[in-house]
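As the work plan foresaw, our protein records have gained a structure token line. A representative record is set out beneath this paragraph:
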Amino acid sequence: MVRYCLKVRYCLRALSVVLVACALSSGAVAQNLEVRIGYIQWTPDPGPVLSNVIPEPEDAGLRGAELALADNNTTGKFLDQSYTLERQAADSEAAVVEAFKALQRSGVGLFVVNAPASTVQALMGASGERTLVFNAGARDDALRTSACHPNLLHSIPSYAMLTDALGQWLNQRRWNDLFLITGPTLADRSWASAFRRSAKRFGLEIVEDKPWTFDADLRRTASKELPLFTQAADYDAVVVADVRGDFGEYVPFNTWLPRPVVGTQGMMPVAWHFVVENWGAAQLQNRFREMARREMNSEDYAAWAAIRSIGTAVTELGSANPEKVRNFLFSDHFQLAAFKGRKLTYRDWNGQLRQPIPLVHPRGLVARAPFEGFLHPNTTMDTLGFDKPESRCRING
């Protein structure tokens, strides 16, 4: 009797293999599905940088998109699906919008965009109803709280997600009294504004809140300027908001009190960093290095996550229809395996990809947010960034 059962199981298993093979050969599964993805990138000239900061690579984001495309095609070849990336690098916002419109006219409905928030908003104003756009570069909170669009998703973490991760860590360490230094750029002010919100949220006190107004060459004067600038009665840590890197690299070891430096320099909350190696990430890092001949950064990871989201949906649906892809990404059936220790999903009210935030220093991983003890009625991932009651966005009704 046992031998008979084993034979039956073997036959059923063999029959299922034959049926799948017949379905593939007969075209029951999607035939020759071509998935075209537009990739648009524009980085405005940041102007002169007042330090020896290492500049971001010019192809940041693009190389992550190319790696994801290769991953999608590896799976797609078994399903008769092929993915192509139609790249457009522009030198102005107007050129970006024109390139976007041209790709839409040619039939492209899926886009990954690495551009400033104002440009993303301009693109959404020019997008059709059947166009789905992934924001892989703009961290601005307004895109997730007020200036939302039903067909705009975000694979890059917001400023609020980054600073909430830092705020949770500082709260855990009981480093409650902070000295905040804010640079002069719009990005610096946006980062600092997000951190002030995080400080209130997690019971931290900013005992000194000072703007950086100097334009001196800190390569020569840092040891004199910064101790005087950071004088205060006491504080547990210095928080730096210097996104571009004009002065922040010189703050560590030059503060008035011997205190750690966190923020955009020192220990940093980021979407991705080459020191992340757990949960299979070392394999992703190695493949990226082999392809790009450099390390993977946050923009690369965001573009990779966006295109892998598309690939996951198309594999499941057998269709690249933007509306169907969008609906699947917001469904209970979607989970992105993304080398962060947890399956990632999109927030249905503002399109933000939920994801853990690594806290790193230049040569090592310190921790990963969210942390234990910070509770949420649905998922602790929503303790990072603006939660549903805090956002005016309702992109799914």
About this structure: The first helix runs from residue 2 to 26. The first strand starts at residue 33 and ends at 41. The chain has a mean pLDDT of 90.
